[in-house]
Amino acid sequence: MEITAITREQATTSNWSGGSTTEFYIYPPQSSYSQRDFTIRISSATVDVESSEFTLLPGYQRLITPLNNQLYLSFKETADTYLLKPYEVCYFDGAYHTFSEGKATDFNVMVRQGMKVNYSVLTSSSQLNPLEHSFLYVPNLPFDPSAKAQIGNLQIQPDTLYVLSACTESIPLFLEDAAVTTLFVNISS
Predict the structure, then answer these.
(1) By C-alpha distance, which of 112, 160, 107 is closest to 136?
(2) pTM of the full predicted structure?
(3) Which of 31, 84, 101, 113 can pair with 38 through a Cys bridge, CB separation 3.0 to 4.6 Å?
(4) Percent of the chain topping pLDDT 70
């Protein structure tokens, strides 16, 4: 079992038309968001303007959840609308013209069409069963650092993405006496 921690300081931050985005993970490692040659990308973005339009990403599926505040999403192609509260998730086609209302910080997962994404919000201790590509994200929310909050043998830190290697045994997540919300993502082909 291997767990790699990626903090915001180790990640790459850039601007987009509605705020900034921090890329925590991209796969394969030599791929590029701008070249659209990646298979998986995990990021956290700020939506700093009241109304914005997301970048078109044909060939990709997207998952988005606000981490704070509400986010209202609408799609030109389907006329569907969603009012997302923190940690509620929306899956959508990256080729859709996507519009948002509301200022928020969000968590994003982008995968090539055809991949499967399973998203869970975890607030209590559990056993994680990593698949082909598995991740645990701890948002930048205040919690008592002396509380017992760890994954495997690592103390959990806020605003950090943990990359979990696929393995046959489960990985313990301890959130005892720690008011910590974590996001667990399993991705498979």
Answers:
(1) 160
(2) 0.93
(3) 31
(4) 95
